[in-house]
Design a protein that fits this description.
The complex is a heterodimer of chains A (494) and B (501). Chain A is an alpha/beta fold. Chain A has 3 domains: 11-163 and 290-355, FAD/NAD(P)-binding domain (3-Layer(bba) Sandwich); 164-287, FAD/NAD(P)-binding domain (3-Layer(bba) Sandwich), CATH 3.50.50.60; 374-484, 2-Layer Sandwich (Enolase-like, domain 1). Chain A has 16 helices and 22 strands. Chain A has helices at residues 2-8, 20-31, 55-60, 62-80, 96-120, 172-175, 179-182, 199-210, 229-240, 298-301, 339-353, 383-390, 405-410, 441-453, 458-463, 473-476; strands spanning 11-16, 36-39, 86-87, 124-126, 129-134, 137-141, 147-157, 161-163, 192-195, 215-219, 245-248, 250-257, 263-269, 275-280, 282-285, 289-291, 325-327, 368-370, 376-380, 395-401, 418-424, 431-437. In chain A, the strands form 5 sheets. In chain A, strands 1, 2, 4, 5, 6, 7 and 17 form a 7-stranded mixed beta sheet that branches. The longest helix of chain A has 25 residues, at 96-120. Chain B folds into 3 domains: 27-75 and 117-182 and 311-376, FAD/NAD(P)-binding domain (3-Layer(bba) Sandwich), CATH 3.50.50; 183-308, FAD/NAD(P)-binding domain, CATH 3.50.50.60; 395-494, FAD/NAD-linked reductase, C-terminal dimerisation domain (Enolase-like, domain 1), CATH 3.30.390.30. In chain B, 34% of the residues lie in helices and 24% in strands. Chain B has 15 helices and 22 strands. Chain B is globular, with a radius of gyration of 25 Å. Classes of the chains: A alpha/beta (494), B alpha/beta (501). At the A-B interface, helix 4, strand 3, helix 5, helix 11 and helix 13 of A face helix 2, helix 4, strand 3, helix 5 and helix 11 of B. Strand 3 of chain A pairs antiparallel with strand 3 (112-113) of chain B.
Amino acid sequence: VESAHSGRQDYDLLVIGGGSGGLACAKEAAQLGKKVAVVDYVEPSPRGTRWGLGGTCVNVGCIPKKLMHQAALLGDRIRDAPHYGWEVPQQVPHDWRKMAEAVQNHVKSLNWGHRVQLQDRKVKYFNIKASFVNEHVVCGVTKGGKETLLSAEHIVIATGGRPRYPTNIEGALEHGITSDDIFWLKESPGKTLVVGASYVALECAGFLTGLSLDTTVMMRSIPLRGFDQQMSSLVTEHMASHGTQFLRGCTPSRVKKLPDGQLQVTWKDLASGREDMGTFDTVLWAIGRVPETRSLNLEKAGVNTNPNTHKILVDAQEATSVPHIYAIGDAAEGRPELTPTATMAGRLLAQRLCGQSSDLMDYDNVPTTVFTPLEYGCVGLSEEEAVARHGEEHVEVYHAFYKPLEFTVAERDSSQCYIKMVCLREPPQLVLGLHFLGPNAGEVTQGFALGIKCGASYTQVMRTVGIHPTCAEEVAKLRITKRSGLEPTVTGCG
Amino acid sequence: AKCLCCIGNLSAHQSGLLQKLLQKESAYDYDLIVIGGGSGGLACAQEAAILGKKVMVLDFVVPSPQGTSWGLGGTCVNVGCVPKKLMHQAALLGQALSDSRKFGWEYNQQAKHNWETMTEAIQNHIGSLNWSYRVSLREKAVAYVNSYGEFVEHHKIKATNRKGQETCYTAAKFVIATGERPRYLGIQGDKEYCITSDDLFSLPYCPGKTLVVGASYVALECAGFLAGIGLDVTVMVRSVLLRGFDQEMAEKVGSYMEQHGIKFLRKFIPVMVQQLEKGLPGKLKVVAKSTEGPETMEGVYNTVLLAIGRDSCTRKIGLEKIGVKINEKTGKIPVNDVEQTNVPYVYAVGDVLEGKLELTPVAIQAGKLLARRLFGDHLEKCDYINVPTTVFTPLEYGCCGLSEEKAIEVYKKENLEVYHTFFWPLEWTVAGRDNNTCYAKIICNKFNNNRVIGFHILGPNAGEVTQGFAVAMKCGLTKQLLDDTIGIHPTCGEVQKREVF
């Protein structure tokens, strides 16, 4: 029956969603000789923003985020420069338009690059909005309304997610924007209220502040839920002492547009019950993301989702409730919402489908970095998770505050530059998690993630000689435990 | 003839003898005397003090031929790693200033750089470090003497201070951590007119148009930041760049520098330096000879910086008096795997050691572990395998493990697999910087599970990227484990996931 089917399918593999996971899967499968098609479609945001091939990361995620973060960091460097002898004016203004154009041009070049890559690998690309007709057939609709039917032996759903809008706040949809829009704004967002405590909220608030915009973050409860909470506090502490305003324990109740175009936001302080009001040019919702699964007609294919999250249920092979239909990336339940995991999952899946390998994706110890003004890189367990899993008596936490050398001459505040390594207490003290707060956190964390993958112990980390002078060497110099109660401040060269 | 102090000590010993007999150690003034207050010396001394020992550190800086001197802390703090990285940072900030315009920051003029502002800030920071080391030694009850130490007989040294006053001290054990100083060419005009890294970081005037002689990392790092702050820089190289480092990477380092305005004179050595004009800086004429033929050339520079190597400070510290063997040719001290010299109570750490890497963290690690073995009943030896390092040239080069040449020599080419890739840091895209320049390679041993035996990366923040990889290599990193690890996006570090053969 199977061979009869495959003869009649248009494609060996159909990938729904041309983002990090989808493209990686498609390209790998094509390279391994399969007949592959990718369908990608961007439903415009409520604001009307749309973008090209490449998915969230390329268009409205990692890439423009890191570039705007870089723009903000360069602002800091301009302030450092006079300390190092450069004759630069005190106040240097920033032109949002110039930055946005440069960032948007780069993103467009990536869109183009992806299209060329698909072409080179003979992957068929359709810019159509897909939904299931049955478990092997998908219907795609173009922007103009024209319909196509595509059939495939295997189907991979990699439709990702989109920002959530609040449902019970008057004016939220009409007057607020999200991360889908911020990177594509031609004009400066001006005085901005960022609602949310996710890394998206903090990263956006961070770079907006760094670009000299009046920025406020409104959080209902804790920052960076799911991340190590001590580190998360240090992240927000740094932001607060560097110009970002915080409204903690507050939720918005209403957004109204004023005659002059500004937005009036009313919010409630949850502790006191008191209402307050403020005026902003822009309101940015960053309260979470929802998977793009509801318009796929998954029930027509028999693909099950989690009724609460709407994410697609998958097993260790990335397979859904239907054996030949898979899901990877942000749309899949229980997966980290990160580009590199989606990419790797996509590649490995393609290899398995083509019989090239039986390797499964390992979702343990996935490193990540939050690109806030002071960056936070981490891999492995948070301190809370480690204690919950192993018990406090079996966990040893080594920690240190440190001062990056470059901050000294620049007279920069390093109060939140902090590292902690969470280990098992029993020798050789296996490293369970590493948390680094400081400049270039992503660069620092990557190599240590490799070490943890190799089963690094505290002993092995200590036996590794440091590179001097760097911030990363401070990890290899961690000596003081939380248990000892000693002051964890580093001084001098040794 | 005995110095006055020794006679004085004898009576002190007699009167204090009973008290000392009641103590753990014998009739020595100290349990440990460390000669040299640099990275290795201070680490060793402080660790020994923490373990309850009576310790003394002697540190003395013989002024350079140009008259430069500095405080406690050794090469790294005063005339090495610290000022070097800060000046490198100044140069990087210059680059950042020009990148920032592409990211929307608005200012018109080409930013100018003021040498004195930078040097003053850096020297202030160094001063604070000198001070903090003195405080640290005091807090740990380590006796610190700002005097030149040399052996006079077994277990005894003579310490001479700036005024010429001599005092003698005895100890049960000694650690030599005297480090090195820059080498001169031995040609006419070198000591009178040329400067070295000893002088550069506290130079009270801008060096101007500079000729850097040498191809060491010191030469390239200095040339790099001098050009980065806007100076006209030429590097005169006798043969290869970064001898001992992976040569493919070394050439890429040099090539980037060349593309960014630094001139290279390859296969020339200076034969004479003449002063044309006095001044701060003055004008110097350099005559150089080709290493390949009769060709000579001349150039005029404000400053000539010699960076042709460093010599150990071991020849004038009385080692011959107690029979400590040194390599006569290099001046370095051979030690066993517990840093012990041929004289059992004399040890050595840091740059003076033969066959060991000249790096601060190595010296610190060796010094600490040595103290723990001597006084703390520990057995751990310093692990010199796979020590990572970074060259802070304009495009930074980080590495750990073997160069490709060394790997081929040890393992043979057919047993190796080399994975490599060029990469374009995301931050360079909008800034409009080169897209086929940053480069990374991994050398694997096919017959040991594709174990990673060499890691090389050329790109921004190379030091930050390399450190963690060094830990992974210490844990036996293989290509498979590398492939299995997820990258952090977007970073340069994740580029290791993208190699091709």
